[in-house]
Design brief:
alpha/beta
Length: 276
C-alpha cells in the first residue's frame, strides 16, 4: 500500500500525504458486481472529498458476476454492464455498456478485480480467467495504472444464500477460505494494492455491532455496513489512516462510525487476521 501511495504522489503531484496541492483527479474503476456496488457507490467519494482528494469513481456492474463471465465478456464485447460513475459527487448510470467502453471512458489510475462472492473462497475458480482478464485490461488502461484485488466478505452466520453450503454454512470457514484464496491471488498476480473488505467486515462483526453487517445475509447493510467497506477502500488506495478522516454518513452515529473506521484501519494493517 505504501508503494502504491508513492505512485499516487507521482500521478497526482501530492507534496505530501493528504496535501491539497494535487495536479489532477484520482480515477478509480471497479470491475465487479453487487459487492463492488456496496463498497464504492455510496460513501467512498465523500471520504476522498473530506481528505481533499478529487476523485472519479466507476463501477462496471453485473449482479453476481464471476471472473469467468467478466473474461467472456471481454472476448465477446457483450454489452452486459451497467456503468455507474460518480463525478463531483453525482452518480450516473449507463446501461448496456461493453467492458471496453468503460475502460476507455477515463485514464484510470487504478482498477480493481474481484471474484463473485459465492466462489470467492475457491481459488480454482479464479484461473485462467483472472490472468487473461488482467492482460485484457492492461492493454486498455494507462501503463501507470495500478491493479487492485478486492477481497469480498463472508456471509452472515444465518445466511440462506445457496452457495453458503460450499463452506458448510460456516461464516469463519468461508472467511478463512476467502483469506487463503486472496493470498494466492496476491502471490500469483502481484497486485500492488490489496483491499481487505472481507477482513474489515469480520473485524466489525467482532465489535459491539455483532453479525449485523449485512441486510440479507450477504449484501452489506446500507449505512454502517457499506461505510465500513468504503473506509477500507479509502485507506487501501491512499495509505492515509481512515480513522483520521472526519467524514461519516448522517445516518451513522459517530460512535458507530468510529467502529467502522477502526475495523477498516485494522484490516489494512493486518489484512489476513481478524482484529477485535
Amino acid at each position: 500500500m505504501k508503494r502504491f501511495f508513492a505512485l499516487l504522489v507521482v500521478i497526482l503531484g501530492f507534496a505530501s500525504a493528504g496535501a491539497a496541492q494535487q495536479k489532477d483527479t484520482l480515477r478509480v474503476l471497479a470491475i465487479g458486481n453487487s459487492f463492488s456496488q456496496d463498497a464504492v457507490e455510496q460513501y467512498l467519494y465523500e471520504l476522498f472529498d473530506a481528505a481533499g482528494i478529487p476523485v472519479i469513481i466507476g463501477n462496471m456492474y453485473i449482479g453476481g458476476c464471476t471472473l469467468e463471465r467478466h473474461f467472456n465478456n471481454s472476448v465477446t464485447g457483450k454489452k452486459d454492464y451497467a456503468y455507474r460513475k460518480i463525478t463531483g459527487g453525482v452518480k450516473t448510470n449507463t446501461a448496456e455498456m461493453p467492458l471496453a467502453a468503460g475502460l476507455a471512458d477515463e485514464p484510470w489510475d487504478c482498477v480493481s478485480f474481484q471474484q463473485a462472492s459465492g466462489v470467492s473462497g475457491e481459488y480454482e475458480t479464479y484461473e485462467p480467467y483472472l490472468l487473461a482478464l488482467q492482460a485484457y485490461v492492461r492493454r486498455r488502461v494507462p501503463a501507470t495504472a495500478a491493479f487492485m484485488w478486492h477481497q469480498t466478505w463472508a456471509y452472515a452466520s444465518d445466511a440462506t444464500h445457496r452457495e453458503f453450503s460450499r463452506y458448510g454454512s460456516d461464516q469463519m470457514k468461508m472467511y478463512q477460505a476467502i483469506v487463503d484464496a486472496s493470498r494466492r491471488a496476491l502471490h500469483n498476480h502481484g497486485f500492488p494494492v490489496f483491499i481487505p473488505s472481507g477482513t474489515a467486515i469480520q473485524n466489525a462483526r467482532a465489535s459491539s455491532l455483532g453479525d449485523t453487517l449485512t441486510r440479507d445475509g450477504y449484501h452489506l447493510e446500507t449505512t454502517y455496513g457499506r461505510f465500513t467497506a468504503a473506509c477500507t477502500w479509502f485507506e487501501a488506495i491512499t495509505g492515509l489512516n481512515v480513522t483520521e478522516n472526519p467524514y461519516r454518513p448522517d445516518s451513522v452515529p459517530e460512535e458507530t462510525a468510529a467502529i467502522c473506521r477502526r475495523a477498516a484501519h485494522n484490516a489494512c494493517r493486518k489484512p489476513f487476521k481478524v482484529t477485535k
